[in-house]
Amino acid sequence: MKRIIFSICLGVIALSPTALAQGQWSNSFTADDARNARERGEILPLKDILRPIESRYGGEMRRFVGLFDRNGRKVYVIDWTTRQGELVQFTINAQNGQIISVS
Amino acid sequence: MSPAERPGKPRLSLSRRLFLGAIVWSLIVVVGGVIAMTAAYRTQTVRILQQELDSTLVTLPRALEILPDGRVVDIEERLPSDSRFTLPLSGRYWAMIAIQDDRSFGADIRSQSVWDGPLPLPQDLASRALDAPGQTQYGNTRGPNDEELRVAVRSITVPNREHPILLMAAADRDVTDEGANQLRLILLTAMATLAGGTLLALWIGLRMALRPFDRVQNHIAEIREGQRARLDGDYPIEVQPLTDELNKLLDSNRKIVERSQTHVGNLAHALKTPLAVLRNEATGDTSLDDVVRRQTESMRANVDHYLKRAQAAARSEALGVRTEIAPVAAGLARLLNRLFEARGIEVTVEIAADRYVRIEQQDLEEMLGNLMENACKWAHSRVEVSCKRGQNGLMHIHIDDDGKGLAPEAREAAVKRGVRLDETAPGTGLGLSIVADISEMNGGNLELAESPLGGLRATITLRGR
Questions:
Q1: Are B198 and B206 in contact (CB under 8 A)?
Q2: CA B214 to chain centre
Q3: Whole-angstrom distance between the N-terminal and C-terminal Cα of chain B?
Q4: Among B275, B328, B309, which residue's Cα sits nearest to residue B430?
Q5: Which of A55, A103, B93, B289 is the most buried (most CB within 10 A)?
Q6: Which of B387, B428, B397, B401 is nearest to B343 (CA)?
Q7: In this predicted model, what pLDDT tens digit does every residue of B329-386 receive, in sequence order?
Q8: Residues contacting B9, CB < 8 A, separation 6+
Q9: Which of B121, B66, B128, B69 is nearest to B97 (CA)?
Q10: Is the per-residue pLDDT at B263 higher than 70?
Q11: Beta strands B456-463 and B394-401, pairing class
C-alpha cells in the first residue's frame, strides 16, 4: 500500500487502512485512525490502557493484534506474556480500559 | 614549647595522619573513578544508540518516491523492517515529517509503534535540524509511553519541493541508562570494597608496625620498676637501633652511678684514715686530748652518716634495682639471735618469699639492721619482723618489739638526726635518722608507732613491685 506526503498546500491524502482478516472481528483500525479517535476522546491513550495491565499481570506485550470495532464498541486485542510466563489474550474496552475478556 | 603546654591542640599521631590521608585519597579515587567510568560508559552507550538511529535515518529516505510535482510517496516494502517499529509503544520510533512555511509540522508518515501517541520530537530540536540541513542533530525527550528517548533528526530537501522534510528516529534509552546505573552500582561496590580492604590492611599494618614501640615502652617501664635490667626482647630490625641506644644509655647510667659510688668510697677512706690517726694520737689525758678525742669521734660519726647517705643516694638513682626482703631479714635475724642469745631475746621473721622492694640490697640491710638491732636492745623477749602489701604497690615492713615503747612526742623526735633517745644505750643516736634518710631517698619513709606486742613498732614503707 502507499501513503503519500503532500506538499504543504495539498495536505495529506487519506490512507486506506490495512485490512487484516480477523475472523470474528471487523477490520482493524490503523494507527492514524487510533490517533484520531484518541484526539476526539473516543478512546483512551494506549499507554493508559497498558499500564494497569502491566502492573497487574507483569510481563510484556507479546503481540499487538489491533484495535477493532466490535458491535459499535472499540476494543483493543492484545496478546500478553504474564509474569508467570502464561500466554493470554486480552480484549479491552478502548473507551475505559476495562478488560472485557481474558483467554 | 612542649606539646603539653599547648592546650586544645592535640598532636595527631603519625599513623592517624597516614590513615586519614589514605581515607581521603580513597574517597577521591572511588568517587572520581566511579563518576568518570560511568560517564564514559554512558557516553559510549549513547554513541552506540545514536549509530543505530543514524542507520534508521539512512534507510528512511530509501522508502521515498519523489513525484515530479514535488509530492512524496512512501513505498511500504522499503520502510525499516524492524518488528519493533510495528509494535505499538515499543520504544523504537521513526517518522518523516513535512515542514510548513512557519516551520510547523505538516503531514507525516510515522512508524506504527507511535500508535496513537504524539510525535516524540521537541520543536527546538526540529529547529536545530532545520538550521543545519543534512546534519544529524541529537536530543532527549519523553516518548509516547512516557519513556526517556534519544532522538536523532535530520533535515533533507527534495527536488521541486519548497520546504524540507524532517527525518526522525528515536530509541528508548531506559535500557542503556539502566545499564549505566547498574554499572555505577557495581563499580561503586567493587571500588568501595577494594578501598575498604586496602584501608583495613593499612590499619592492621600500622597497628602491627607500632606494636614493637608499645613493647619497648612496657619494657622501659619494667626497667624503671626493677623487673628488668636491659631491653633484651626480640625487636624488629626497625626498632633495634632505638633499643640499642637505650641499652647504651642504661649502661652509661649504671657506670656513672658506679663511678660516684667509687668516689664516695675513696672519700670515705681519705677522711677516715686521718681521723683514725688523730684519734690514736690523742691518748693522753690532757684537756686537749679530751677535746680531740670527743671531736674526732663526732667527726667520724658525721662522716659515717653522710657517707652512708651519699652511697644510698647514688644507689637509689640507679635504674632497675630490686631486692627480695625475706632473705635479708632472715640473715639479720640469725645474726641478732646469736648476739642477743644471752639476753634471751628471740627474733622471728614472717615474710613470704617473692616479695621485693625497689632498693639496693646494701641499703635494705642497713635499714633493717639498724631497726632490728634497736628493737633487740629495747625488747623484753621478742622481736617480730613482718611485711604487708599496701596500696599503689607500696610495701610496709614492720619491726615490732615487746619492750617499753615510746611516748608519741619521743617518737617524732627519734627520727630527727642525732637525737639520742637514751643515753644509756650504746650507739651515736644516728641510727634512726639514717634509716629515715635512706628510705626517703628511695621514695619511702619511716614511721614509729605503738606495737601490738606492747613496745615500739617501726615501719619502713618502700616501693614494692
A1: no
A2: 9
A3: 35
A4: B309
A5: B93
A6: B401
A7: 999 999 999 989 888 999 999 999 888 898 888 889 989 998 999 899 889 999 999 9
A8: none
A9: B121
A10: yes
A11: antiparallel
Q: Are B134 and B57 in contact (CB under 8 A)?
A: no
Place of cell 627519734: B414
Does B76 contact chain A (CB < 8 Å)?
yes
Cell numbers at B150, concatenated: 534519544
Residues of B in contact with A92 (CB under 8 A): none
CA-wise closest residue to B168 among B199, B148, B195, B139: B139
With beta carbons less than 8 A apart as the criterion, state whether B451 and B405 touch.
yes
Of how many residues is chain B composed? Answer: 465
Bridge partner residues of B387 (DSSP): B397
Q: Residue A41: how many CB atoms within 10 A of its CB?
A: 8
Beta-carbon separation of B109 and A3 below 8 A: yes
Contact check, Cβ <8 Å, B116/A37: yes
Q: pLDDT per residue over A42-83, tens digit each?
A: 999 999 999 999 999 999 898 899 999 888 889 999 999 999
SS3 category, B322: coil
> What contacts 24+ positions apart, CB below 8 Å, involve A53-56?
A53/A78, A53/A80, A53/A90, A53/A92, A53/A99
| C-alpha span between B156 and B106 (Å, rounded) | 15
For residue B395, the cross-strand partners are B389, B462
Rounded Cα gap, residues B351 and B320, in angstroms: 23
Q: Nearest by CB to B114, which of A4, A31, A37?
A: A31
Taking the CA of residue A42 as centre, how many other CA atoms within 13 Å lie in the half-sphere pointing to its CB?
A: 14
Q: Give the span between the Cα atoms of B249 and B55, in whole angstroms.
A: 85
DSSP per residue, B384-401: EEEEEE-GGGEEEEEEEE
* Rounded CA separation B402/B400 (Å): 7
Distance CA A73, CA A96 (A): 11
Q: Kindly identify which residue of chain B lies nearest to residue A15, measuring between CA atoms.
A: B109
The 8-class DSSP code of residue A28 comes to E
Which one, of B325, B435, B343, lies nearest residue B389 by Cα? B325
